[in-house]
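As the work plan foresaw, the team has encoded backbone shapes as discrete tokens. One protein thus recorded appears below exactly as we store it.

:::
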Amino acid sequence: MPLCVYLSLSLSLSLSLTLSLSLSLPLHLPLLVSLSLTHSLTHSISRWYIPSYLEKDEPCVVCGDKATGYHYRCITCEGCKGFFRRTIQKNLHPSYSCKYDGCCIIDKITRNQCQLCRFKKCIAVGMAMDLVLDEAKRMAKRRLIEENREKRKKEEMVKTLHNRPEPTGSEWELIRMVTEAHRHTNAQGSHWKQKRKHSSAAGVFKHCPEDIGQSPVAATSDGDKVDLEAFSEFTKIITPAITRVVDFAKKLPMFSELPCEDQIILLKGCCMEIMSLRAAVRYDPESETLTLSGEMAVKREQLKNGGLGVVSDAIFDLGKSLAQFNLDDTEVALLQAVLLMSSDRSGLTCVEKIEKCQETYLLAFEHYINYRKHNIPHFWPKLLMKVTDLRMIGACHASRFLHMKVECPTELFPPLFLEVFEDQEV
């Protein structure tokens, strides 16, 4: 059924789509997507940190050098602190001796000439031997410091998570409607793992890679061979998948308020992206398969030989990366809504309105992510980066379709398939 009829639009459509994919996220997407990968550390401070409680240029009570703080109960420099600590930890003081009967004057210049007199002065000014930790106590203290640091870090993280805004009442209603739209238009819903049949893939994509050459094939100009029989069956699966994407869009709040021409441009622009997302979230790491049409599991080579070529690799790679996110139906639905409302599609008339619609979905999406409290660091910006991946898949498929259109018989392309993907700009 033609797309214009399916949308119940009374327009005479030329259906010329100019898909503008810059392969980067729209400028209005949150700046969180742009993560800084460089961190510059420049220090213009002195070698030792001087506490604020010290007077300017306060001297060490042992040698008179510039003090750096309280060490073992006295104001000392780093040198005398280290000397005193090493002496106690290694029990060196019994071996110290003085050539001048212990009468040396200890200052910044002479402090390294007589260890005994320097140590005696440390004791005389009040440095406490009992405050010097042995190796075991020092390691225990270090572990305690690290544990406290980690504890504070976790507490800060929990505090930050709890302080992040969660969906408002109106956003919850929007989220509910988007989620229901996805569930009602997604083949087999979220129970695909229980319902899929691995053997069904062999029935449709029955020509394995090694069997290519024993069935009709077409070599596209990009070098990939297409199993024409498998491609024919693949297009039969794609057609109802396109219909479900259209149904999803029609159920979304705000979409029906847009002009008919803009609706068609948005649908044609996002169709492959949404279908790819729906397939990618059904990637099974154990069998390394994607589930199509709710219950058919296909391997990478089967999908590639069925006509998608390198696009197959991109979808499988996306499935692998999305597996760690453990997305629920709502997150998948909101991601689809963000893809649909992309205001940078070429030919749109209500760009600002579409941009505001996408921003509304994005804000509700971000607040829902806050509500879910994922354990993955930087979950939200990492997830938004998948929008870029999906846009790249859409562009790659547009290029692939042009090659196939030239090399494959026209009768293999269903009308709806042609109507959605023909005349796309690459």
User: Anything to note?
Assistant: The chain has 15 helices and seven strands. The longest strand covers residues 289-292. Confidence is low (pLDDT under 50) at residues 8-48, 189-215. The CA atoms of residues 69 and 339 lie 59 Å apart.
